[in-house]
TrEMBL record, chains A, B, C, D:
<dbReference type="GO" id="GO:0050916">
    <property type="term" value="P:sensory perception of sweet taste"/>
</dbReference>
<dbReference type="GO" id="GO:0008527">
    <property type="term" value="F:taste receptor activity"/>
</dbReference>
<keyword id="KW-0807">Transducer</keyword>
<keyword id="KW-0472">Membrane</keyword>
<comment type="function">
    <text>Plays a role in the sugar gustatory response.</text>
</comment>
<keyword id="KW-1003">Cell membrane</keyword>
<feature type="transmembrane region" description="Helical">
    <location>
        <begin position="174"/>
        <end position="191"/>
    </location>
</feature>
<feature type="transmembrane region" description="Helical">
    <location>
        <begin position="242"/>
        <end position="267"/>
    </location>
</feature>
<dbReference type="Pfam" id="PF06151">
    <property type="entry name" value="Trehalose_recp"/>
</dbReference>
<keyword id="KW-0675">Receptor</keyword>
<comment type="similarity">
    <text>Belongs to the insect chemoreceptor superfamily. Gustatory receptor (GR) family. Gr5a subfamily.</text>
</comment>
<feature type="transmembrane region" description="Helical">
    <location>
        <begin position="131"/>
        <end position="148"/>
    </location>
</feature>
<dbReference type="InterPro" id="IPR009318">
    <property type="entry name" value="Gustatory_rcpt"/>
</dbReference>
<feature type="transmembrane region" description="Helical">
    <location>
        <begin position="99"/>
        <end position="119"/>
    </location>
</feature>
<dbReference type="GO" id="GO:0007165">
    <property type="term" value="P:signal transduction"/>
</dbReference>
<keyword id="KW-0812">Transmembrane</keyword>
<protein>
    <recommendedName>
        <fullName>Gustatory receptor</fullName>
    </recommendedName>
</protein>
Length: 432, 432, 432, 432
C-alpha cells in the first residue's frame, strides 16, 4: 500500500481540508478545486448563495412550484417554499397551511368513516373500494403532514450537498424535466377523473329523463359519493362539497405517486452528475486522496438517499399498496362485461393510466439504485498502479450498501421488484 | 496504522463512561485477554455484582416475572428465576416445576390423541383445527422443556455480555417495555378467549332453553372440547377440567409468540446500546485498537444471537407454522357467512389479533437483523486516516454474517420475510 | 509485490503462445498503456489484419452468413457484412437494405392494425394471438433496426478484443457450431410452419369439397390471415402476399431467438478460451503483473458483455415475453380436445418446439454467466506465495459484477431464472 | 501485513512442501504434522495404505456394501468395489456387470414404451404415472451407467483427500450410520411396495371370487403392470417377470434418493471433522502458514464437493423432479375418497414415506452447505494479532463460493430450497 504517499495529506488534521492540489499534477488543477468546500462551513456560505440562473435547477427551486400546487390541496404544509434557499423553510403547527392541511385530513377521515358505515350494510367489493380509496387518502394526508416536519431538514441537507458538490454543477434542465413529468401525470389524472364522472353521469342519465333527477341520481346512486349521501341529505351545497371533496381526494391520490417520481428524478440526476464526472477519470492514474475524496462524495449522496428514504418510505409503502389493490380491482372489473363506449374508454384509460403510473414510479425510483451501482464499473477499470485502499473501500461500499428508496425497508425499489410484483399480479389474476 | 493518533482521542471526547483504558494493556500481554473479562473469569466477577437499581433492566431480571407467569402454566421449568443473578439458574428433572411441566405436556398430548380419534370418524377442517391446535401446544411444551435445560447457560452468557459491556449500561426501561408488551398481548389473548367462549355459548343457548342443557350442549357440541367428551362422559368435574385445560392451552399458544417477542426485544435493545455508542464516534479519527475492541464486542453480540437462535429456533418454526395455518383458516372462515353480532365481533377480533400477533412478532424479531446491520453506516464514514484493517474486518463481518433469529435455519426473520409470507398468503387465499 | 518472481515463470511453462512480454514494459511507461493495444489505436492495426484461415472463426465472419440470411427478411440492415473486417460495417438510413427493412416493418405494423381491428369485433384468445404475434414481429423489426445502428460499433469492439487477445486464438469451430445451431432451429421452425399450414388446410378441406373453395375458405377463415381478409377482398394476389407475409413474420419470430442463441454462443466461446488459458496456470506461482494482465483481459470480456447486453437487452425482453405468452397459450390449448392426427402432431411439435427453443435460448444465454464465474475457482487455488493484490481484485470483480445478458436489467439470464420461470409457468397453468 | 514472515517459506519453490513446523512453536508439533502429505505423492503412499480398522470408515469401504446391493439391481456397474482401496476401481464396457446394467436399462426402456403406448389410447393421470415412473427409472439407469464411468476417479479423489487429511482421522461410525440410514429407507420402501401390492390385490379380490382369476385380474387390471399386458398376453412367466420387473424398478427409484443421502452423509462427515479440528483453534494466535494450510484443506474439500456434484447433479435433478411429481400426485389422490382400510393405510404410508424421503434427502444434502459455512464463525473470532491475509482469503472463499450439491446448477440444495419447494407445493395444491 502506498504508505509513502500518506505524509502529504496527513499534515492537516482533518481530512476535509482542501485537497493537496499541488500533489496531483496529472489532471487540471481547477477541475475539482470546488470540492474543497466541505460541510462544516456551509452555514456561512449559504447566505452568499444568491438566486442565480443555475439555482433554478437546484432541488429546492426545481420542486417548488409542484409543492406550491400540492399546498393548494393541503399537502406538505411547509413555509418558505418560494424562498431563495432551503434554510428559510419552516414547519409551524399554528400556520394557516398546517391548519388547512389538518382540515383536509379531517375531511378525508370523515369520508372514510362514511364509507365504513355504508359498507357495514352489506359488504361488496364496490364499497370496499371506497374504504380503501378514502383510507389511503387519509393516511396520505397524515404522512405528508409528518413529512412536512422533516422537509426543512431534508431540503437543507440536499442544498448542502449541492453546494459541497458545486463543481459538478446543477442537473441540466432538472426544473424542465420535473415540469414535463408533472404535466403528463396530472393531465392523465384529470382525463381519468373526467371520464369517470362522464361514465357515471351517463349511467344516471340512462335511468332518468329529468336533468335535476339525473344529478340527484348521479350524486346519491351512481357516483362515488354514496358514502356521503347515505349519511347526509342531498342538497346543492352538499353535492358541490362532495364534488370538490372527490376532486381533492383524486388529486391527492395521484400526487402521492407524482411526488415519489419527482424526488426520485431529482436524486437520480445528482447521481448522474457524479457518474459523469467519475467516468471522465476512467482508466487514469490518480492519487489515493482523489479516491478518498470521491468516495466521500459518494457517501454523501448515499447519506442523502438514506435521509430521503427515512422521510418518504411510509409514503412509498402506501403508494405501492394502493396501486397493487387498484390494479387487482381493475383486473377483476375487466372480467365483467363493459357496457357502452364511455364505459369502455373509461375502463381502458383508467386501467392503462394506473399501470402507466405504477410502472413509471417503479422505473424512476429504481433508477436511483441503478445509478448508485454504476461507479463500480469505473473502479474495475482502475489501472493496477493507481489501485489504492480507498478504491477497494469504495467498491466495497457500493457492493455492500443498498442505495435505494424502500417501502419501510420491507422492499427496495429496483427493477427486479417490478418483475416480482408483475409475476405476483399474474398469479393472482389467473387464480381469481 | 496511526496508533500515535490514539492519545488525541482518549482524553475524554466520549460522553459515555470512558472505555476501560487501564484494561487495555492486556492486548499486548495475553493471547486472547481481550475477552478475558468475558467468559473465563465470570464465575468470580458475578458474585460481586449486586442487585442494584440498574440491574432491573438486565435480561435476567427484566424477563423474570414473565417467566414466573409462564411457569404457572408449566412452561420453562427452571429453578432460580427470581435469584439475584443468572448463575443461580438450574434445571432439574426431579423438581416440582419440571414434574408439573411434564404433567401439562401429557395432558396436552392426551388432548391431541382425543382430537385425532374424533377426526378419524370423519375428516373435516373443524376437527383438523383441534389436532393442529393441541398438537402445536404439545410440541410447544416439549420445546419449552428442552429450552429449560439450555436456559441457565443462555442466561449466564447474556449476563456475562452485560457485565463485559457494562460501559454501555443497561437498556433504558427494558423491564417496563417488556411489561407493556406482555400486558397488551395477554389482554388481547384474554379478550379473544372470552369472545370465543361467548360465541360458542351463544350458539348453545340458541339450541336449548335450559341453562344446564345449555352448558351440556356447549361442552359436548359447540365448544372446542368435543374431542374430550367424544371419549369421556360429561360431568361437572370433566367439564371444569376441560375448561381449565382449554384455558391453559390457549395461554401456551399465545405465550409462545409473546416469548419470542420478549427475547427479541431484549436483544434488540442491546444492539441499540451498541449502535448508539458507535454512532457517537462517527467520522472521528480512532486507533486500530479501538476498532479491534469494538469489533469484538459486536462479535460477542453476534455470538449471543447465535446461542439464542440455537435455543429457540425450533419454537420460532412452530410459531410461524401455526400462525400461517390459523391465518389461512380464518381467511377460509371469512368466506362462509357470519351469523350474529357476537360471532362477527369474535371473528374480527380473532382474525385481527392473530394478524397483529404475527406481524408484531415478525417486526420485533426482524429488528435484531435491522440493528445488526446499522454499524455498517458508521464504518462507511470512517475517515481515510483512521481506516484500519480491523475496520475492514468489521465491515466484512457485518456484511457476510447473518445475525438474526431463524426458523431452524430454514429462514431468517427479516422484514423481507414478512413481505414474502404476505405474498404467499395472498396467493393461497385467492387460489382457495 | 513479488515482481522479482516473474522470470521463473516466463521461461516457457505455458503451452500456448507466450504472452506479449515485449509489450509489457508499457506498464511502467504510459498511464493505461496496458489497454493501448485495445481501443485507442485499433484503426491502424485493423487494416493489417488479413482474412486468414483463423479469421473464419472470428465473430464478424462466423455470424456473417446468418446475418445475410436475416437481411433477406429485412432484419439487421447493415452494410459490409461480408467485408474482411468489422471496420467496414456501416449503417445508412438511405441504403436499399434499410429501406427494405422499414418496408417490412410497415407491413408488420399494418398486419398488427388489421389484427387489432378484427379483435374489436369480439375479443377472443384466438384473435389476441394475432395481435400478440404481429405486435411482437413489428417490435422486433424496430429493435433490429435500432440494433443495426449499434452493430458496427459492437462488431468493432468484438474484433478489437479478438485482436488484443490473439494469444488465445479464435474459438475452435465457432462457425461450424453456429451453422449447426442455425440449421437445427430454422429446420424446426420450417417444420412447424408447414404443419401449421397443413392442419389449417385440413380443416378447410373438411368444410368444402371444391379446391378453389378450399383455398378461399383457408385464407379467409381457418388460416392466420383472417385479419387481412377481414379488411381486404380475397384475390390471388392478396392471398399470395398474405402467404409470404406470414412466412416472413414466422421467420422473424424464430430468428429473434436464434440470434440471441448465436451471439451468446460466440461470447461463451471467448470466455471458454479465457478460462482454458487461465486453468493452465492453476496452482502455479505467478507474478502480480500476470494477474494484472489477466484481470484486464477479463475486464475487457466483461466490457464486451455489457456492450452486447446494452445492444440486445430489449430484444431479449421481447423474446422472453413472447415465449412466455405462447407457452401459456399452448398449455391452454392442450386443455381443449385435439381433433385429427395432423392437429395432434402439429400441437405436439409446436408445443415441443417452443419449449425447446426457450430452453435452448435460456441455457445458451445462461452459459455466459456460468463461464464468467469459472475463473473464481482458479483464484482459490492460487498458492499463498503468489497471492497478490490483483488476485484479490480479480476475485472481487468476479463476485461483485454480474456478467450476463439481461432483459433490460429486469432479470439476468441465469440457470436459476429458467427454474423460476418454470415454477411460475407451473403455478399459472395449475391456476388457470 | 507480515512481509517479514515471508522469506521463511519462499525457500522451497512449491508451497506443498512440508510446513515449517519449527516456525510454529505455539502449538504441539505432531498435531498437524500429517498434513504435510500433499497430493503429489499419493501414488506412492496409496500402496502403503493397508486395510486397517480405521479404513472401515473410509468412504470407499463405508459405501461398498450399499453399492454391491445396488449392483444386484444393475446400478453402478464398477469393478473392484470390495477391493482394499479405491485405486482398484475400474469401469469396463465389456464386463458382466455393465452388460447386466444395460440389460436392465433396456428392460426399463421397454416398460416406458409400453406405458407410452397404453397412454395413447386415452390420456389419464393414472397412465401418465406409469410413463413418469418408468421414464424416471430408465433415465436413472442411464445416469448411473454414466456415473459408473466417473466413479473410479471420484473415489480416488476422495481417498486421496482422506489420506492427505489423515490427521483428522476418519469419520466416527460412518459405516454404521450409512447402514442405519440404508436399512431405514429400504425397509420403508419395502413396506410401501408390500402395501401397494396388497391394496391392488384387495381390489382384484373384490371383483372376483376365484384365486386364479384374482391374480389374472390383478396383473391385467388393477396392478401397475397393465402397460405390459396391454401389449403381451398373460401367462405365469410374463406375470413373474412383471413382478420382478416392478420390484426392481421400485428399488431403483428408492435407491436414487438413498444414494444421494449416503454420499451427502459421507461428505458432511468430512466437513464436520474439518470443523471440529478448526474449532479447537478458536481464538488462538496462529501463524499465517497455519491459515494457508487450513485454507488449502478447505479448498480440497470444496474441490471434492465440486467433483461429486459434477458426477451426481443430473441424478439429483431427476430425483427432485420425480419426487415433486409424486408428491403432487398424492396430494391429488388425497382429494378422491379412499375406500377400505388397506387403501387408507397404503395411501398414508405411501404419502408419508415419499415426504419423509424427500425431506431427509434435502436435509442431508443441505447439511453439506451448512457445514461448509461454519468455519466462518471461527474466522470472526481470530484475534487481531493473529489476523493474516490468508484468514481474509479463507473468509472470502467461504462467503463467495457455494459449496453444495446442485441440480445441474439450476438450484443448490440448501435449507432455503426446501422451504421454497414447500411453498410451491402449497400453492400448486391449493390451486389444483
Amino acid at each position: 500500500m502506498p504508505v509513502e504517499g500518506r505524509p502529504r495529506w496527513q499534515k492537516g488534521e482533518s481530512y476535509r481540508v482542501p485537497l493537496p492540489v499541488e500533489g496531483r499534477p496529472r489532471w487540471q488543477k481547477g477541475e475539482i478545486a470546488g470540492t474543497s468546500i466541505g460541510r462544516e462551513c456551509h452555514e456561512v456560505i449559504m447566505n452568499a448563495v444568491t438566486f442565480n440562473k443555475e439555482n433554478v435547477n437546484s432541488f429546492h427551486h426545481a420542486v417548488s412550484s409542484e409543492i406550491v400546487t400540492a399546498q393548494c390541496f393541503g399537502l406538505l404544509p411547509v413555509l418558505g417554499i418560494t424562498a431563495p434557499n432551503a434554510a428559510s423553510l419552516r414547519f409551524r403547527w399554528c400556520s394557516f397551511r398546517t391548519m388547512f392541511s389538518i382540515f383536509m385530513l379531517l375531511g378525508a377521515g370523515l369520508n372514510t368513516c362514511f364509507a365504513v358505515v355504508i359498507m357495514q350494510s352489506g359488504i361488496s367489493f364496490k364499497q370496499s373500494d371506497g374504504v380503501v380509496f378514502f383510507g389511503t387518502v387519509t393516511v396520505t394526508y397524515m404522512l405528508f403532514l409528518q413529512l412536512a416536519r422533516q422537509w426543512p431538514n431534508l431540503a437543507v441537507e440536499w442544498e448542502n450537498l449541492e453546494i459541497s458538490q458545486k463543481h459538478y454543477g446543477y442537473p441540466r434542465r432538472l426544473r424542465l424535466k420535473i415540469m414535463i413529468v408533472t404535466t403528463v401525470v396530472l393531465t392523465g389524472a384529470l382525463v381519468e377523473h373526467a371520464l369517470s364522472k362522464s361514465s357515471q353521469i351517463a349511467v344516471a342519465a340512462a335511468c332518468t329523463d329529468n336533468v335535476t333527477d339525473m344529478f340527484h341520481h348521479y350524486f346519491t346512486k351512481t357516483g362515488t359519493y354514496n358514502q356521503i349521501f347515505a349519511v347526509m341529505d342531498y342538497s346543492f351545497a352538499t353535492a358541490t362539497l362532495a364534488l370538490i371533496n372527490n376532486f381533492i381526494a383524486t388529486f391527492t391520490w395521484n400526487f402521492t405517486d407524482l411526488f415519489i417520481i419527482l424526488v426520485s428524478l431529482a436524486l437520480t440526476e445528482r447521481f448522474r452528475l457524479f457518474n459523469e464526472y467519475l467516468v471522465s477519470f476512467r482508466g487514469k492514474v490518480l492519487p489515493g486522496s482523489f479516491w478518498a475524496q470521491i468516495r466521500e462524495e459518494y457517501n454523501s449522496l448515499s447519506h442523502l438517499t438514506r435521509t430521503l428514504d427515512s422521510c418518504i418510505s411510509k409514503i412509498v409503502l402506501v403508494s405501492f399498496g394502493s396501486n397493487l389493490y387498484f390494479i387487482c380491482r381493475q383486473l377483476l372489473n375487466s372480467l365483467s362485461p363493459l357496457g357502452g363506449i364511455i364505459n369502455t374508454v373509461y375502463f381502458c384509460w383508467s386501467f392503462g393510466f394506473v399501470l402507466f403510473r405504477t410502472v413509471t414510479l417503479s422505473l424512476y425510483a429504481a433508477s436511483i439504485y441503478d445509478e448508485s451501482l454504476k461507479p463500480k464499473r469505473v473502479l474495475y477499470d482502475v489501472p493496477p498502479e493507481s489501485y489504492h485502499l480507498e478504491v477497494s473501500r469504495f467498491l466495497n461500499q457500493i457492493v455492500t450498501d443498498t442505495v435505494a428508496l424502500s417501502g419501510m425497508n420491507f422492499f427496495y425499489i429496483t427493477r427486479t421488484l417490478l418483475l416480482t410484483v408483475s409475476a405476483l399480479h399474474l398469479t393472482l389474476s389467473t387464480a381469481v
